[in-house]
Design goal:
Elements lengths: L5 E7 L6 H16 L4 E7 L10 E5 L10 H12 L3 E5 L4 H12 L4 E4 L6 H5 L2 H18 E6 L2 H9 L6 E3 L33 E5 L8 H14 L4 E5 L6 H11 L6 E5 L3 H10 L2 E4 L8 H8 L4 E4 L6 H5 L2 E4 L3 H13 L2 H18 L2 H15 L2
Parallel strand pairs: 1-2, 1-4, 2-3, 4-5, 5-6, 6-7, 8-9, 8-11, 9-10, 11-12, 12-13
Helix pairs in contact: 1-14, 2-3, 3-5, 7-12, 10-13
Length: about 375
């Protein structure tokens, strides 16, 4: 491979504002550096920057925060783009895309766009007029400069083509490094979390770990849990993750109305050691999302040998094909049916499904092969 220089940008590396988007961009950047290829990553941040990773630059964003516009990033945009050969955009419709799109066009540098689920119908329907305005302001011009599109799945590749895009597409899923998820030597007696000083495990545990956001399907999971907990009284549900736009209050209200609030624990955001401890403390991972590109949370759960329950909209059909868990539709009845089967399964069956999931991640979703595929596509289409 030739020595192309790569510049990545994304809206944020913060768990709440960047989510899996930021985590995936950071992971790809780090893997490219490990391969001895030049790479730089830029993003915005709120009160505090998030990482000290090599060749990573974070710039404080201006208000309103949802625009993800950082004046310092704009001042440095010309220099950053001039020192790169390929400009990688992770995500759409925000200030970082405006800044780097303008510079890429002005300096005639190729863009590579990583969609990360943003062409999912559920996402396209949200704030439709705002997206149309952003397209008119800068994304249409950016799209014309994109020389390579990255789809996480074949389904996403079809969605890109469905938008009338004819540029080359590389299908390359999100990945994780399983060595970053070591099993604790012994299970902790309790886990410290922002909302619960001591989360103690007293029952088999179902874990939801993601952003607390309407698209994640908690309005489906809680009614399904209310039905399942009647038959499976010895289980508990833990809901972990950062609260987005105050949606946690709505979720708590649903739990109270269903009279399951005493059977549900809310932890708030967890990271680092506490996050790994929480994953390994669970017996089943649930993500009943309405829409995903390819959720890192599911890969992390499988890396920790957790059996998973996920909706088909999570775009991981391999879960069913490899026996790593249970797939269901985005409705209460289907989620309940799968949840009931999962909770009624034996410990040995759940452990086997967890082992299948870890093997799946190691075989299909590891970074070295995927990063190589992306770099080769860049050399073929962005030189």
């Amino acid at each position: 491979m030739t020595a192309l220089r790569h510049l990545h940008f994304t809206q944020s590396l913060e768990p709440l504002y960047g989510g899996g988007l930021g985590a995936s961009a950071l992971a790809l950047h780090r893997q490219i550096l490990k391969m001895g290829v030049e790479s730089t990553l830029c993003s915005t941040h709120g009160d505090m920057s998030q990482t000290s990773a090599e060749r990573t630059h974070e710039f404080k964003r201006a208000k309103p925060g949802f625009m993800y516009f950082a004046p310092g990033l704009k001042r440095n945009g010309e220099q950053l783009v001039s020192s790169a050969d390929v400009i990688h955009g992770h995500g759409l419709y925000v200030g970082t895309n405006y800044i780097f799109g303008v510079e890429a066009r002005r300096q005639k540098k190729p863009l590579a766009y990583h969609v990360h689920g943003m062409f999912e119908p559920y996402i396209l329907r949200r704030s439709r007029w705002k997206k149309q305005l952003v397209h008119w302001l800068f994304e249409d011009a950016n799209f014309r400069r994109v020389r390579l599109w990255r789809a996480l799945t074949l389904r996403e590749a079809d969605q890109i083509r469905g938008c009338g895009i004819s540029a080359p597409i590389v299908v390359a899923p999100k990945c994780i490094d399983t060595v970053e998820y070591p099993k604790p030597e012994r299970a902790p007696l309790s886990i410290r979390t922002p909302l619960l000083a001591q989360l103690v495990k007293r029952h088999p545990r179902v874990l939801f770990l993601s952003r607390i956001h309407p698209k994640k399907g908690l309005d489906l999971l809680l009614p399904a849990w209310a039905k399942a907990s009647v038959r499976h009284k010895d289980w508990e549900l833990v809901i972990a993750g950062p609260d987005e736009n105050g949606y946690l209050a709505t979720v708590r209200s649903i739990a109270h109305k269903l009279n399951v609030h005493e059977r549900v624990a809310f932890t708030g955001p967890v990271t680092g050691k506490e996050k790994r401890e929480l994953l390994y403390s669970a017996d089943l991972f649930a993500l009943p999302s309405y829409s995903e590109g390819l959720p890192v949370g599911l890969l992390e759960a499988m890396a920790c040998e957790l059996p998973v329950l996920a909706t088909k909209e999570c775009n991981l059909p391999d879960i069913g094909a490899t026996g790593a868990g249970w797939l269901c539709e985005t409705n209460v009845e289907s989620i309940y049916a799968s949840l009931d089967i999962a909770l009624a399964s034996t410990d040995s069956e759940r452990k086997q499904r967890g082992a299948n999931g870890k093997q799946l991640v190691q075989n299909r979703y590891s970074w070295p092969s995927i990063a190589t595929e992306i770099l080769r596509a860049c050399e073929a289409h962005c030189c």
